[in-house]
Amino acid sequence: MALRGLSVLELAGLAPGPLCGMILADFGARVVRVDRLGARGNMNILARGKRSLALDLQRPQGAAVLRPLCARADVVLDPYRHGVMEKLQLGPEILQRENPRLIYARLSGFGQSGRFSKTAGHDINFLALSGVLSKIGGSGENPYAPLNLLADFGGGALICTLGILMALFERTRSGKGQVIDANMVEGTAYLSSFLWHSLQMGLWENPRGQNLLDGGAPFYTTYRTADGGFMAVGALEPQFYKLLIKGLGLKSDELPDQMSMSDWPEMKKRFADIFAKKTKAEWCQIFDGTDACVTPVLTFEEVIHHDHNKERGSFIINEEQSVSPRPAPLLSGTPAVPSCKRNPFVGEHTEEILREFGFNQTEINQLTSDKIIEINKSRANL
To answer: Taking all residues of the chain, what is their mean pLDDT, rounded to a whole number?
Structure first.
């Protein structure tokens, strides 16, 4: 796999950090998730292919255990707010002094500087401060966040992963690691570059929800079907729009011009009435195999059974019969080989990992007795 041999220490956190670590693991990296003692439940999401080391970093002895691991790691993934790792004596200045090749990836909400750098927040807050939230929502409605996908995972996890890969590539030339300041506000703003660069094109001159690409156009939105399902329509180009009109049983010469924005509200109502007369399956029969850019809005239950996804093997099943998306993109020579094993229990690999890094049994026993580490092998054997 592409990242085979790469050693990553992921400090356990919420949402973005775990996805970043899972992507690295999917493509071959050896990822150790450093869990808090007693952590359960939500820490075990997005843990595919990782091992768990349960360690109390709030105590100096815990930080002392982690430092030799960092000295041999390629990447440390820090998901905390500015200053947290410095208080633990685990900041980049200390760790990179001991390991100059270390890539220290800091993934936060607001970044390592600025007035909000030590402020709490979640996806919707980062999305709001990036400016992107102001563009999302229906006409006359409040802005709404598209789940927690855009800031947490797009602007956060993926941008951080990109930063790690670029730093790894640069290290092949300089031999040195560097600090990555990946944050969800700026990452999301960067993802929205098209919005900024298209402002002068007039694409966003109308109020939210009344523009070409935000649900204002009758040919770029979703419609409810007779059975309560939905169809997605994206017939932007004239040649595709003609096929849409044909599939709906309408005649182009009897309709307003496609780009007559004053007619869009009435055309949306007309299209909605037509879509409501057939089921989702019936509309699929009409539009499948055409270039009308009309597709069913698939539920999670439907998506794994769709012919296209089955043909490509787009979803995988682990040993517990849980379904998830296959890693992307596909690499022809070194594709990802995601683990099919269950997610690790917190502390399942603590002893194994410490032994790999030179700790002897007496030291491990003492750390356990002092409640610096946690070993959960019994749960792993259930």
So the answer is: 95
Q: How many CB atoms lie within 10 A of CB 194?
A: 9
Question: Catalytic site residue 122?
Answer: yes
Torsion of CA 35, 38, 39, 40, to 10 degrees: 130
Task: Report the pLDDT value the prediction gives residue 139, as an integer from 0 to 100.
Answer: 92
Which of these is catalytic: 122, 181, 263, 306? 122
Residues 6+ apart with CB under 8 A from 123: 15, 145, 148, 149, 150, 151, 152, 184
Active-site position among 26, 74, 152, 214 = 152
pLDDT of residue 42: 54
Q: What is the 3-state secondary structure (H, E, C) of 281-319?
A: HHHHHHHCCCCCCEEECCCHHHHCCCHHHHHHCCEEECC
Q: Per-residue pLDDT tens for 72-89?
A: 999 999 999 999 999 999
Spatial distance between the Cα atoms of 224 and 230, rounded to a whole number of angstroms: 4
Quick check: 380 pLDDT over 90?
no
Catalytic residue list contains 35: no
With contact defined as beta carbons under 8 Å apart, do 345 and 351 qualify?
A: no
**55 close to 34: Cβ distance less than 8 angstroms:** yes
- What's the pLDDT tens digit per position in 35-56? 999 877 556 789 999 999 999 9
Reading the block at residue 234, the tokens are 């994206």
Chain centroid to CA 302: 22
